[in-house]
Amino acid sequence: MNPDRRAAYLRALDVTVYRPRAVAGSVPATSAAVEPEAAARAQYAVGAPRSAVSATAPPASAASLDALCRQVAECRRCKLCEARTQTVFAAGSPRAELMVIGEGPGADEDAKGLPFVGRAGRLLDQMLLAIGRSRAGDEPPRSVYIANVVKCRPPGNRDPQPDEVEACRPYLDRQIELVAPKLIVALGRVAAQRLLGVNLPLSKLRGGQYEYGPRNTPVLLTYHPAYLLRSPSEKAKAWDDLKRIHRFLVAASK
Ligand code: URA
To answer: What 3-state class would DSSP assign to 29?
Structure first.
């Protein structure tokens, strides 16, 4: 979306835009007003516009999502390949305006080869349905594209380790590039930290609006559905996030 148009939408929605701090080689941040209490968060958005090219892993240059999926299926860039049953690439529509990014496959996903098919996945489907979206939807506005930070199951459902996240970075970056969503929603701390390039807890990051990649794709954050299953009292806050996501998408598609 044209940056001026997006800024106008965001102002109309009363959404604070956090501009990334200038990093070497990037265009300096412009004069966006940042709320004082948000300033601390904003300064951490340094990772947001980073290049799609990883410092450690070669870029993924597949020309299509199908080609990228085949490349991922053969991947042996990190130790997660040793214990996986299969890789878990994505679900949903490649034409979606909304891209949802989780952490990594669990046991159910490893068995089925699809993201978010266990209990947390069922809750995610309900959350998406609440804002009129579904992984079965083929075209916007109903559609959604779902992917993960890492494409192979971390053993015992542990968090993916930094080297594993880095090894998978080019695949997720290329997925984002090829889908070209209008909005990315990061589910939980691992996805938020991966996209924002920071080590802060989700509680410090949630509520902000960020940008990712060379297209400055807007990023919003919410709780991971697995966390909401463990902490149902947080669902009210997740609902606030969902309403914000919905408002953003409605405005962005006008
Ligand atoms: N949790 C995730 O983050 N991703 C999945 O695909 C399943 C559970």
So the answer is: coil
Cβ of 160 closer than 6 Å to ligand 1, yes or no, is: no
Distance 135 CA to ligand 1 centre (A): 14
Q: Cα(19)–Cα(17) distance, rounded to whole angstroms?
A: 6
**Secondary structure element (H or E) that encloses residue 23, with its range:** none
Give rounded-to-5 percent helix, strand, coil for the chain: 45, 10, 45
Read off the pTM: 0.81
Other C-beta atoms lying within 10 Å of the C-beta of residue 239: 14
Pairing of strands 183-187, 217-222: parallel
Q: Where are the alpha helices (DSSP H) in 13-160?
A: 36-42, 65-73, 80-83, 107-112, 119-130
Q: What is the mean pLDDT of residues 196-200?
A: 98
Q: What is the DSSP letter of 156?
A: G
pLDDT, residue 56, reads: 59
